[in-house]
Amino acid sequence: MQTQMSDDQLFLERSIADYFESAWPLASAIKAASRAPDADADALVGSFMSSIAQMGWLGLGVGEQFGGCSGDCIDLGILAECAGRFIIPSQAMAAVAGIQALSLLRETETTGPDLTNAVSGKTFISIAGDTAPIRLRLGAQGHENLALTGDTPFLPHAHRADWLVVDARTPDQIQPTTLLVRQSSAVLTRQSTLGGSEYCTASWNGADLSGQAHVLIAGDCEDGPARRTRYRTLMTALYAMELTGIATALLDRTIAYVNERKQSGQAIGSRQSVQHALANVAIRRDHARLAGFRALWCLATGRPALRAARVAKIAAGDAAVLASEAAQQFWGAMGYARESGLYLWSQRTRHADASHGSRMSHLRALADAMDLADVL
Amino acid sequence: MFFDFTDSQKAFRTEVRAFLAEHFPARLARRYQEGEERLGDTPWDSDIRAFFTALNARGWLALDLGTDQPRLSHVERLILFAELDAANAPRDMRVTAISVIPAIVALGTETNKAQWLDPLLAGDVTLSIGYSEPSAGSDMAAMRTTAVREENGWRINGQKAWNTRGHLSTHIWMLARTGPPDSRHKGLSIFIVPLDAPGVTIQNVPTWGDHMLNDVFFDDVHVPFENLIGPENAGWQMAMAGLEGERAFLGLPQSLAHIYEKLKAHFGRDEDEAPSKSDHPEFGMAMARFEVDLDLASLMAMDIASRRDLGVPWEPQALALKIFTSEMRTRLADFAMQALGLEGLLDELDPAAPLDGDIELLLRRSPLARIGAGANEVLRDVIAQRSLGMPRR
């Protein structure tokens, strides 16, 4: 048993945190999240994305032969936690998700686009973080002559993507088929959500997608469920780490604020009600961080990880929501004002909490595994 | 990072389990449910002494004393205590072993060590703790009980409150003021005082959870010089050193997990029974929440042990675990009472009591975990001020 980060992991964390802090200051995050984003805001995000691709962090979890860093799942968790702390553009972790999907879901390295291009930021792959029922039907079988009918919502930044990863069902197969589809083959509709419109719904009308789609996991593929579970488990744990980073940022900023802000001549942070609420946030955040790293360690060492990832996601969601509510309360109107940027973490909390299974859905999965009798 | 026990740690766990199978009589397990004497009867009998003698012979009682074997790591200590708790083994000597003895070893004089360590380990001297006073609970430095140096020893006057096990122990390990009245924590010293000494009066304070607490009065009680432990006026450091050892294991969730597993088994589905999760999903969700929280508590306990082994700060985590687990006890008692309905009110004396009456007892005892060993409010103050850097008022 050893729960602490190694020197290499600490170095990675410091490097990423230092870079994000300087390359993506809060002012940039506020500008990029403006209600009326302009070309300058787009350029800011674009420039940041290019810079982290150059640093190799988009490909942190893939091999050096693809231009990646050959990092493990724990390294990816460190990146995700920093993403939450410094509220970097959501496009960055969406890109990491796409790269990991290509790396983990496809059977052979030659299927679909070159991973090197995705790692270098030239190709962007969007994959939904939603676990809702599949609404896409696959009309024809085989690796050629693919026809899709229906839609897939919540594809992050799909309007900028080159490829989309979607699940589709055929009438005769229990397991879905996972496909990599050219974005240009779909009709995209921007979804208006909390915090903007980063998601799109992609629709297809049954036209033949020959040459524009690849099967990553066929519905009858024997190891398909295992590959899909590994990817989903990794993403569940990474979102948990992002939520942990969000909780840390909100906690640190709120402590700094209440220690400085005075009411009736005394720092509001000297009040017991405030101290206890923030102590509760710290306790929950510490739980979540441990649980997140444990899940990633299980993945990194080939151990069963799904249950640990569910526990981590539940704990991290609790921590970030508690931190968000405490921060909004103690900052008062200052935090309510957009200029504080506090709302960015609160919004990101809700996106990450709902992605790859809400707390409630993971609790339900754990409950189902318990096989309880009728009691009430 | 390595989020599992190593092979040697797993082997140690097996060793502890084998020890318990050999030396822990099953009849004691029920009596020690939830930690201490159950119905106020005298627990210090030959079986319990034999158990502690065997534990001591293995070097697993006083973990910081020099032995032929290498000292246990903190992760191994966690494994030891977790297994003892999971088996409901006696904890009568735990505070003595992890709090008092380390303090004597670290700060006691050579005379103190020669006089007290062997009788303590043999169970000939059994200790209760005397820190709290009627007007000095969380603010221990405000205590008023005095020890005055005389020609042939010390004369002690005052009162200790909320004392546990004083009615069952031979001696009390206590703090008394040896400095001026306003000397706060700088003027306190530790004494070991026989509870049958002339001038000592013990008044029982029965509690809701059937823990017997006591008020212990000292009226011109005389003790020889050698009953002062450590240097004069070094009591605060000794008490704090002792509390540090105790705090690391305050929030262990094993005994609560034991009750949770019994609850889960109670509501488990029989083979011929249809699943009900779709009928009452809220019940399953609430059970899953406890499963998650118990898992997190175990993980935190491992983190604390790992931190201690690595020499990195661990105290805020230990306080957090105590808060978390103690409040979970209350939540689980409330939840189980709701789920069981009127049956949940049945106590262990009723043959029809579900879970052997554990829920009835858990409910009555749950306040103690929240207020004992530092009330949760005080611990939250400590976390906020010392760990998060928030200001004192």
What does this structure look like?
The complex is a heterodimer of chains A (376) and B (393). Chain A is α+β, with helices and mostly antiparallel strands and 376 residues long. In chain A, strand 4 and strand 5 (177-182) form a beta hairpin. In chain A, helix 7 (224-260) packs parallel to helix 9 (306-331). Chain A has helices spanning 7-23, 26-32, 39-55, 73-85, 90-105, 115-119, 224-260, 272-300, 306-331, 333-336, 342-354, 359-368; strands spanning 125-127, 136-138, 147-156, 163-168, 177-182, 187-190, 199-208, 213-217, 262-263, 266-267. Chain A has 12 helices and 10 strands. By secondary structure, chain B is α+β, with helices and mostly antiparallel strands. Chain B is 47% helix and 14% strand. Chain B has 12 helices and 8 strands. In chain B, strand 6 (200-206) and strand 7 form a beta hairpin. Residues 34-41 of chain B have low confidence and may be disordered. Chains A and B meet through helix 7, strand 10, helix 8, helix 9 and helix 12 of A and helix 9, helix 10 and helix 12 of B.
Short note summarizing the structure:
The complex is a heterodimer of chains A (376) and B (393). Chain A is of the alpha+beta class and 376 residues long. Chain A has twelve helices and ten strands.
How is this fold's topology laid out?
The complex is a heterodimer of chains A (376) and B (393).
Chain A: H1 7-23, H2 26-32, H3 39-55, H4 73-85, H5 90-105, H6 115-119, E1 125-127, E2 136-138, E3 147-156, E4 163-168, E5 177-182, E6 187-190, E7 199-208, E8 213-217, H7 224-260, E9 262-263, E10 266-267, H8 272-300, H9 306-331, H10 333-336, H11 342-354, H12 359-368
Parallel strand pairs in A: 1-4
Antiparallel strand pairs in A: 2-3, 3-7, 4-5, 5-8, 6-7, 9-10
Chain B: H1 7-23, H2 26-31, H3 46-57, H4 74-86, H5 94-107, H6 110-122, E1 127-130, E2 146-150, E3 153-164, E4 171-177, E5 188-194, E6 200-206, E7 212-223, E8 228-229, H7 235-247, H8 254-266, H9 281-310, H10 315-340, H11 358-371, H12 376-387
Parallel strand pairs in B: 1-4
Antiparallel strand pairs in B: 2-3, 3-7, 4-5, 5-8, 6-7
Helix pairs in contact in B: 1-4, 4-8, 4-9, 5-6, 5-7, 8-9, 9-10, 10-11, 10-12
